[in-house]
Amino acid sequence: MANTSEIRNGLCLDYNNDIWTVVEFQHVKPGKGAAFVRTKLKSLTSGKVVDNTFPAGHKIFPVRVERRKYQFLYNDDMGYHFMNNETYEQTYIDVKMIDNPGLLKEGADVEILFHAEKEIPLILDMPQYVTFEITYTEPGLKGDTATNATKPAKIETGAEIKVPLFINEGDLVKIDTRTGNYVERVKK
């Protein structure tokens, strides 16, 4: 058990029968009244983000979590299968726990956050940027570059993203895994 003075970004805590992580926090000491801690919490089970205020000195229940490196193997009707890079044990994760499953390439290294006492996976963290080859896109029209126009394109995993008009089939592009948006073209 701890109190609100130990709240920090990334802290996982048990609150309202769910496991939450602190996205942002702010200690507030108004001129009148008692101090409090304003937080933004994200549920690790549902992904829901809520604002919550704790009075100063309020008891909180931190949850011990472990980050483990895994490699993505494949997906099927049971879920997405991963292999632990140290023990070679395999585990699978439901698609609900992955933010952008279309951006997972076979052999990609990821980190899975586990509840240390219960040994259950909580959330999957992909690298911030991944590089993919464009497998299909319509050719861009010459001279149509005055605005930030985009067109749909398929990447090697089959996912569809929006890319600028100058991107062609066979180009390598960098994609932000948090948003699923195009970042830049990568030289071969």
Major sheet summary line: 6 strands, antiparallel
Overall geometry comes to flat
- Give the DSSP E fraction (strand runs of 2 or more residues): over 45%
Count of DSSP strands:
16
Number of helical segments with 4 or more residues? 0
How do the strands line up in the largest sheet?
1-6-2-3-4-5
**Poorly predicted ranges:** none
Distance between the termini: 52 Å
| Radius of gyration using CA atoms only | 21 Å
By CATH reckoning, the class of the largest domain would read: Mainly Beta
Order of SSEs:
EEEEEEEEEEEEEEEE
User: Which architecture of the largest domain would the CATH scheme give at its second level?
Assistant: Roll
The helix-and-strand class reads mainly beta
Which topology of the largest domain does CATH recognise? SH3 type barrels
- What is the total domain count? 3
Helix content: under 10%
- Average pLDDT level: 88
Tags for this model:
flat, 5-stranded antiparallel beta sheet, OB fold (Dihydrolipoamide Acetyltransferase, E2P), 3 domains, SH3 type barrels
Concise structural overview:
The protein is mainly β and 188 residues long.
Topology:
Elements: E1 2-3, E2 12-15, E3 18-28, E4 36-43, E5 49-55, E6 59-62, E7 65-76, E8 79-84, E9 90-93, E10 109-115, E11 120-125, E12 129-137, E13 150-155, E14 160-164, E15 172-176, E16 181-186
Antiparallel strand pairs: 1-6, 2-3, 2-6, 3-4, 4-5, 7-8, 7-10, 8-9, 10-11, 12-13, 12-15, 13-14, 15-16
Task: Outline the structure in words.
The chain has no helices and 16 strands. It has 188 residues and is an all-beta fold. The protein has a six-stranded antiparallel sheet, with no helix packed on it. The mean pLDDT is 88.
